[in-house]
Amino acid sequence: MQGILAESEFPVMVVHRDALQHNVATMAAFAQAHGLRLAPHAKTHMSPEIAAMQLEAGAWGLTVATVTQARTVRSFGARRVLLANQIVDPVGLDRLAAELTRDPDFEFLCFADSPAGVDILRAHAPERGFRVLVELGHAGGRGGCRSVAETLDLAAYVEKSDGVALAGVSGYEGSLKSAEQVRDYLGGLREVAEHLRLRDPLLSVGGSQWFDVIGRELATVKATVVLRSGAYVSHDDGYYRERTPFNRVEGELRPAFEIWAHVLSTPEPGLAVVGMGKRDAPYDEGLPIPRREGVTVVAMQDQHTVVRADGLRPGDVLAFGISHPCTAFDKWRTLPVVDSGYRQVGTITTHF
């Protein structure tokens, strides 16, 4: 055991500094090289330290999913916030309106996918109004108008409504299953953007699993294209390792998370119980990935992980990578940042 691992209570999840810095720089460079703006989805980490790294690397703004998250990243120093969701909460809208009134330099944008949603925004708008991106969805998607024509009709409704201002079009392609489906969907977003009566509309897309296709398909669109990629910042050893566009184009992301835990019990031959569980590591998009050869995770419980392996003894220490960063950060309020020798060189705090 070395560095912080010799001093910590277990389980402990660490963040590798070099991987974190590499990922922030890599995604910033990709966006710049393809003429894209990057508004990283802060709901992944909800960390002021990581937000500062992303903004210092040139992020256009920060993306969030809820009013509470928007108010939190404002406390991180974000001047431009994109709320990539519909907002219908009266209390939340009133608080956003108050913040927009208080700070004339605060830039805020949100989504709308129905006249009813626009009317709710109008009812709580500050004097300078809410800036709105009309959302184009797709069949089976989680939100958005279901056709280009419906989206353009909604844009016209926004344009004639007081209290809201049309800023562009938005969408989410991450739930589509193939590059062909993504290209077709992006074609609809392009069509909407090019029919809007705006000199420089925004066109915002998700961008974690298909940013290579986005970079090609939207290279010539007459709009400012904003990626909302989030999971790239820590990457992983599972879900995003398999799906990152850097499997198809030049470049790489590196897994920054690692969780360490003791073997607690070996109650049967070839079976061991490890002292970490669902409270400590994500399990919704794949189980943790053992870093030791011959170890296989078979189940997770609240505080335990069951593995199959030969030769383990109580007190042994195992390391695991994780799958799905978005449900890793939220399990820890503080995370030690370590160098290659596991010496602590910083701390990441989270505010979920």
Average predicted local confidence, pLDDT? 97
CATH superfamily label of the largest domain: Alanine racemase
Strands, total number: 17
Question: Cα distance, first to last residue?
Answer: 31 Å
Helix content: 25-40%
- Give the count of structural domains: 2
Spell out the helices and strands N to C.
EHEHEHEHEHEHEHEHEHEEEEEEEE
- Number of H/I helices: 9
- Report the CATH topology name of the largest domain: TIM Barrel
Corresponding CATH architecture of the largest domain: Alpha-Beta Barrel
Main pleated-sheet profile: 9 strands, mixed
Structural category: alpha/beta
User: What's the alpha carbon Rg, rounded to whole Å?
Assistant: 22 Å
CATH class of the largest domain: Alpha Beta
- Regions with little confidence, pLDDT below 50 for 5+ residues: none
Residue fraction in strands: 15-25%
Shape: elongated
Structure description:
This protein is 28% helix and 25% strand. The strands form two sheets. Strands 1, 10, 11, 12, 13, 14, 15, 16 and 17 form a nine-stranded mixed sheet that branches. Strands 2-9-8-7-6-5-4-3 form an eight-stranded parallel sheet. It is elongated and about 70 Å long. With 352 residues, it is an alpha/beta fold. The two termini are 31 Å apart. It folds into two domains: 3-14 and 252-349, D-serine dehydratase-like domain (Lyase, Ornithine Decarboxylase, Chain A, domain 1); 17-235, Alpha-Beta Barrel (TIM Barrel), CATH 3.20.20. Helix 6 packs parallel to helix 7. It has nine helices and 17 strands. Residues 256-339 form the D-serine dehydratase-like domain. This is Amino acid deaminase. InterPro entries: Ala_racemase_N, D-amino_acid_metab_enzyme, D-ser_dehydrat-like_dom, D-ser_dehydrat-like_sf, PLP-binding_barrel.
